[in-house]
Amino acid sequence: MRATVDRAGLDPQGRLPKIQVRRVRKGDLSKVRDVFEQTFGDFLERQLGTRPRQAFGGAQYVHHRWLMEPWGCFVAEEDNAKIVGAALAVTWGTVGILGPVAVLTNYQNQTIGQQLIRASQGFFEENKAALHGCVTYPTSPKHLFLFHKFGYRPKALTAVMSRAIDRTPPRAAVAKPAKAP
């Protein structure tokens, strides 16, 4: 006889939970940050073989995005109690940018990500965005396929580069002796 293990996201009868998508409230921000950290930590651990210490750009990322565009931030909530997914969208003029979108690992493949994307696209329509774009992992077929379902097509791989800045104080300038006339 095989042992069965309850999978998070399913009730004892194996039914999918009731998911409601709504806009993020200020009191949700720490839970939303946890969803992003856990989801992308799991994803990167599968990709890299080790879990990153800070999977998603720091604790304040979600808060700053919410401050920038609070009406473009959405959560997926299970039975009006547990936040299991989130999406962040922003508009700049007539351009709408979607991403990141995160759903807790045990709740994936249940159309929650699709519901979050639909809510974000509704936000773009409310704001009359003429061009929609998304941010995702270009090396993940799962992520690409999800966005492809909504008409997004890859145009180019964009390299985001950074460099360390040397913050040591500058050396005192050495005065050169004046030349004789």
What is the helix/strand order?
EHHEEEHEH
**Low-confidence runs of at least 5 consecutive residues:** 1-6
Strand order in space, largest sheet: 1-2-3-4-5
Percent helix: 25-40%
Protein structure class: alpha+beta
Largest sheet composition: 5 strands, mixed
The oligomerization state is single chain
Shape: elongated
How many DSSP helices? 4
Task: Give the averaged pLDDT, no decimals.
Answer: 85
Total DSSP E strands: 5
Q: Beta-strand level of the residues, as a percent range?
A: 15-25%
Distance between the termini: 102 Å
Radius of gyration: 22 Å
Describe the protein.
- The chain is α+β, with helices and mostly antiparallel strands.
- The chain is built from four helices and five strands, in the order βααβββαβα.
- The chain has helices at 29-48, 61-68, 112-126, 141-148, and strands at residues 19-23, 73-78, 82-92, 95-103, 131-134.
- The protein has a five-stranded mixed beta sheet with strand order 1-2-3-4-5.
- Helix 1 (29-48) crosses helix 2 (61-68).
- It is elongated.
What attributes characterize this protein structure?
5-stranded mixed beta sheet, 28% helix, elongated, alpha+beta
Offer a concise description of the structure.
This protein has helices at residues 29-48, 61-68, 112-126, 141-148, and strands at residues 19-23, 73-78, 82-92, 95-103, 131-134. It has 181 residues and is an alpha+beta fold. The radius of gyration is 22 Å and the shape is elongated.
Give me the secondary-structure topology.
Layout: E1 19-23, H1 29-48, H2 61-68, E2 73-78, E3 82-92, E4 95-103, H3 112-126, E5 131-134, H4 141-148
Parallel strand pairs: 4-5
Antiparallel strand pairs: 1-2, 2-3, 3-4
